[in-house]
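hey so i finally got around to running the thing on that chain from the lab meeting. sorry it took forever, my laptop kept dying and i had to restart like 3 times. anyway pasting the input first so we r on the same page abt which one it is
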Amino acid sequence: MYSQIFQEIGLTPNEAKIYETLLNEGALNVSSVSLNSGIHRRNAYDAIDRLVEKGLIFPVLSKEENTYKAASPSKLLEIIRAKENKLSAILPALEEQYHKNPRKQEIFVYRGLEGVKNYLRDILKTGADLYTIGSAGFLFNEKIKSFVNSFHLEAEAIGLKEKHILNSIQKDIFFEGSKISADSCKFLPEGKASDMSINIFGDHIVSVVEGENEKDLALYVIIDNNLAKGYQQIFDILWATLP
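ok and heres what got predicted. didnt touch it at all, straight out
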């Protein structure tokens, strides 16, 4: 039931299965661990040794045969926090290295909801005002609602401004619970809706193609200062023509 989550936070498939097995069954010897988890005995030994090393299980010594028992699941949080602390310690140096060679021209693609999060992080990182033309539907997915709300709060805190030219059919849902003011939005004429959007901020142009589901969502990112200025001019012209 939880094996996939355990893998997502860093356990191998065998480690995840064995840890969940011991959580469910209590103390077991290696043969029982192998039988209940469906893992070959030889592979079970290797995974058990790694889990003991990580502190997620511990041996229960016996005169007959040792058994193994799962440690409290709170140990998983300790492991994650320890990794976060290690990363936090080197993050300033990594950021310095990342920004040492500024990007002049780049093209790459973000995909899915994690791609949307990267896109929003990029906006905050540049600190540049955001200009959008077209559909904003990709921002209304319930799975990233809290992340989008946090983005708007951070954007407001750093004084980042937004202007949007959106599909008229999105007028109601865009303002619902949003901190975006009405005077920062205009809408395309009825019947002129677009399934994609163009987003301009700083030297970035991000074209978002939403697709039929979140797996099809693609964000095509172009980093080019001159091109971004050109798109900004197009936005300003279109903005001036709309009521």
